[in-house]
Amino acid sequence: MELLIAELDGEARSITLKGRSMPRTDESPPSFGLQQRGRINYPPSNPRADVSLLGSVWLPTTFQGEWDDKFFSPKDAPRLVGFKTLDSRVGNTVVPAGDNARRSIELVEAFSLMLRIGRELRVEWGPIVRVGILWKFDFQPTNGQQHWVWTMDFEWTGDTPFRPIIRKPTRINARSLFALLLALLEAVRKGIALLGKFAELYAAKVKAPMDALTNAITGVLEGLTSVINNAITPQKILGDLKANLTKIKLAAKDLLRALNGLVDFAGPTTKREADQANYAILVISKEAIRIAANMAEREQELAKLDTPDVQDQVIITDGLTLRDISQRFYGTPNDWIFIAQFNSLPAAPPTGTLVLVPYRSS
């Protein structure tokens, strides 16, 4: 049995304790327990308590042991990886890659360096895996610097190196969409107003796509008004909303195509008037492009609502487990069964398997 303590990033240093350098397990064996967070409250005159749970956390773990130079035989000597130099090494301070510790003071220096740097560590002791921080390293030398009594305290952040990803389901924000559409429509109308007396000259080519754009936006605004006033729920207008956003996008593109042929207008007018008209056309064209882009973005957001149960998908790679996926998306590895049941998968799906990650009910 060995105890591996490895940095997750940076220089990726690691220390492997084995043999008589391992923590003591006879008098005070280390604990790797869990604790639930929450509150239990007994309301007045109620024999049953209200329970509010926040989720479980890993309890801190303390390792204790002794290191002695005479036990650092090739069989029992701890292994050091990623430590380029050790000041305590006699003679040449350079540490070859993957070298064994030669004296116990080298372990003291190596663990002290890990604590000062403060990177997240992966700790493996047989089947037990934890990820966390070396919070405290205490040591007392005896017999010069040949024998050391030591204690390490670890605070755990989980049992997998994957960080949880907190995602919220897509929702229809009626007020923000209403404000956006209103602003876009007003911008186009201001562009038309800039044309002034020349608006009639463009009516034949611009009126139809402009009317289509206005009607499409107005239709969406009416539906959103009902949502904002709580007359209907957002889901009830989802189908019409997606269709109308597509209409707005297409109408904006039609308007843009109609405007493309109107730049550099030359007619029975002065150059100043022509420049003003051309500027107005460019303003309207810019707004048409902005409308089309915004509607395309909103279409993508609404498309996610077609599969409300699924928030993401993950492909199983070497070393990735359902417990890792559960930790990443839910903050706990314990919901891996939920993912397995949703996908009808075994506990250990093979590499290359596509896993759908569903939203978990709160």
What do these coordinates show?
- It is a single chain.
- The chain has 362 residues and is α+β, with helices and mostly antiparallel strands.
- It is built from 7 helices and 12 strands.
- The strands form 3 sheets. Strands 5-10-9-8-1-2-6-7 form an 8-stranded antiparallel β-sheet.
- Strand 3 and strand 4 form a beta hairpin.
- Helix 2 runs antiparallel to helix 5 and helix 6 packs across helix 7.
- The longest helix has 33 residues.
- The protein is elongated and about 105 Å long.
The biggest sheet amounts to: 8 strands, antiparallel
Number of E strands: 12
- The general outline is elongated
How widely separated are the two ends? 40 Å
Low-confidence stretches: none
Structural class: alpha+beta
Assess the beta-strand content as a share of residues: 15-25%
Helix content: 25-40%
Rg is 33 Å
Count of helical regions: 7
* Mean pLDDT over the residues: 78
Spatial arrangement of strands, main beta sheet: 5-10-9-8-1-2-6-7
Order of helices and strands: EEEEEEEHEEEHHHHEHHE
Descriptive keywords:
7 helices, about 350 residues, alpha+beta, eight-stranded antiparallel beta sheet, single chain, 12 strands, about 40% helix, two-stranded antiparallel sheet
SSE map:
Elements: E1 2-7, E2 14-18, E3 34-41, E4 50-58, E5 61-68, E6 79-81, E7 99-100, H1 104-117, E8 121-125, E9 128-142, E10 147-158, H2 174-195, H3 199-228, H4 238-260, H5 271-303, E11 310-315, H6 322-330, H7 336-343, E12 354-358
Antiparallel strand pairs: 1-2, 1-8, 2-6, 3-4, 5-10, 6-7, 8-9, 9-10, 11-12
Helix pairs in contact: 2-3, 2-5, 3-4, 4-5, 6-7
